[in-house]
Amino acid sequence: MATNPDHGELVPLAQGPVASVFAAVRPESGDAVAFKVFPERLAKRTRTDLDRELSKLAPLRTQAPILVADGVEELPDGRSALRMELCSQSLPELIGVFGPLSAADAVALGQSVATALAAAHRAGIRHGGVTPGNVLFRPSGEPVLSDFGRALRDAFPRDPMYNVDYLPPETVRDGTSDERSDLYGLGGILHLALTGVAPHPPNPGEQPGEHVLRVLGTPVAPLNRPDLPRGLAELVGALLAKDPAARPADAGAVAAHLGAMFSPPSIVEKPEGFDDFASAPPPQPPPRDLGQPLAVSGPRKPERTTTGRTGLVLAVVGTVAVLVVAAILLIQNDPAEMAIPPASVNPAPPVPVPTSSAAPVVQIELMEPADTGHSVDLAWRSSDDRMDYAVIVAGEEIPQKTVLAQRNHTLSVPVDPLRKYCFSVQATNGLTLVESSPKPIRGATCRG
Questions:
Q1: Alpha-carbon distance 61 to 123, whole Å?
Q2: For 93-118, what is the mean pLDDT?
Q3: Spatial distance between the Cα atoms of 181 and 167, rounded to a whole number of angstroms
Q4: DSSP letters of 280-329?
Q5: Angle, alpha carbons 184-206-222 (nearest 5°)
Q6: Which of 112, 156, 357, 376 has the most neighbouring CB atoms within 10 Å?
């Protein structure tokens, strides 16, 4: 168990792709706090950029549902940590326990996230990684958007395969991130909230490379729920558009549009780049004020006791765990109105992607690999220049892996100089998925 000289024991809560999250207790107040601990000390430039971002975000605490770190601390082992308030759970945890949200709850959640993005964008801050895991709930039930800023993402790059279901194609390809990329993430949050699954859930038997290329090139299946308010399915589809120019341009307009979905009919400005609505809305519950929790249970901070330090920290974590169930969600409804969609309402099935067995029109050819010992240089050619590529690396006695090649036609892959390998290239143009014949090195036997 890690320790902090000012907060004692740090109780592990979660492990992300880069950082670990711990819970602790402030000795002077008894307030529960969270520490997001990074693998090393922040470089001077990173710390400067991070401090600048936090100073821009700090005034937004009272303006929008944004979780802003209180500061940066250095742990005794030399690692840096962000200190922030302790939340009770994340959106994926909530969905995992209770299933998809009611349409009203999902709309209000989306409005909160869009409001947070709008405030940050006005302050000149892009999020850079809007995913359901960054939507957290306070013990009161209020949702907040966490993990803003680019400084730490640039300092600690994520595996491009991590959270690929929720990242926009331009971010997966080359790391591009802007306001419309953030809005793609909002679309993914709404999709999960309404269906319980990612926009592109893996198909049975689908290889990682096939999945990534489907995410990059295949449109998201339309939402299929009879209780959706007018225009919601179309808005989610627009937010998840592959082309950034086809997405809404302004988070504030999206927030306003979502806020009007359960309001009496009025003239509402449509988000830029989105101009399609269903003809007749289904009956809806009366609107309620945004920000009202469904249920609040448990203390906001632990009572002071004579238990030991470790016991107090664990008690705080236990209290938060109880609130995971008791403080279900913010949002618009009374507790009696909390309606999980019935089991008979299922998300639309994934859009099928043609495979190479269907005589693809596009042809792709992998050249003979150039083995340099510790790396292999690969090159390929295709009859379509609008392809996204992924290289499949199958090594002797090691797990198969997928390496994104974006839209390049060459890639150098690190290898073990003592192992045999097979390589192939998969590609999609959004209409079809094709794969090259495999190529071996060092006498490997390739399947396919």
A1: 12
A2: 96
A3: 8
A4: SPPP-PPP--TT--S---S-SSPPP-SS-HHHHHHHHHHHHHHHHHHS--
A5: 40
A6: 112
Q: Residue 131: which region, alpha, beta or left (left: phi > 0; alpha: psi -120 to 50)?
A: beta
Mean pLDDT of the chain: 80
What is d(CA 254, CA 170) in angstroms, rounded to the nearest whole number?
Answer: 21
pTM of the full structure: 0.74
pLDDT (tens digit per residue) in 173-216? 888 889 999 999 999 999 999 999 999 988 888 878 888 888 88
DSSP 66: B
The structure tokens listed for 416 are: 């073990």
CB atoms within 10 A of CB 413: 16
Residue showing tokens 């958007």: 145
* Digit-coded pLDDT (tens) for 362-401: 889 999 999 999 999 999 999 888 889 999 999 988 888 8
Write the CB contacts of 60 (distance below 8 Å, at least 6 apart in sequence): 66, 68, 119, 120, 123
356-441 topology per CATH: Immunoglobulin-like (2.60.40)
**Tokens at 112, concatenated:** 């909160």
Distance between CA atoms of residues 149 and 126, nearest Å: 6
On the question of a common fold for 87-353 and 356-441, the answer reads no
> Is domain 87-353 annotated with CATH 1.10.510.10?
yes
Q: How do the domains of the chain map onto residue ranges?
A: 87-353, 356-441
84, pLDDT greater than 60: yes
Which of 108, 159, 136 shows the shortest CA–CA distance to 332? 108
CA distance 346 to 341: 9
- Please give the DSSP secondary-structure letter assigned to residue 117: H
